[in-house]
Amino acid sequence: MAEAKLSVFRGNKDGGQFKTYNVPIEDGMVILDAIHYIQANYDSELAVRWNCKAAKCGSCSAEVNGMPSLMCKSRMDKFTPGEEITVQPIKTFPIIKDLVTDVSWNYEVNKKIAPFTPKDTGEWVVYQEDIERVQEFRKCIECFLCQDVCHVLRDHDRKDAFMGPRFLVRVAGLEMHPKDTLHRTKYLREEGGIGFCNITKCCTEVCPEDIHITDNAIIPLKERVVDDFDPVAIFLKKIFGKDKGQ
To answer: For residues 178 and 130, what is the distance between their CA atoms, to the nearest angstrom?
Structure first.
């Protein structure tokens, strides 16, 4: 039986090192299967977070050969036979142990976003195209791979000033809902830090749900922020436009 060589990070917030394991390869095997093999046959204390193994819970985020990925979607047969495969925790968030990181910062950001606020609670008439526009954003499984690959959070550690692409997606789903009445552009511009995003599209590239994060969420939100704070746009809106929800 063919074997794969996995170099897996072992350690915690105080440091660690990569340890190499030889794992037999079976048809249909994914990286998460290999990690489970290591737990069962080499070291039961190897820490990993996972749940569904169906790419829907977002739990098994890691970096496989440096690429932020879901371990349950990373097939072993895509690697060259004999190639050493590195598996390490996502870098943007603090390590707890081995492949497990502390992503609790994300949930604190989430609490600050104003919730869906409709104008009324009566019968709604909504066009299908409006539903389809926001439905894409509901597909997010909160794997936080987009947060991990975002250079503002990863390379510059600006968690103090930038909410990251995952939460720009959430705000987009609220702002673009035809029945929502709130303006969140002030929050996006100030505490959300949308100006830090320079449209590299790296977040879109790693999204396991194929959400068009940059084109469909971030760019339209940037345009709304400009419209709400540009003096000329404000003047024209007062004369010709209607406010959101009217």
So the answer is: 7
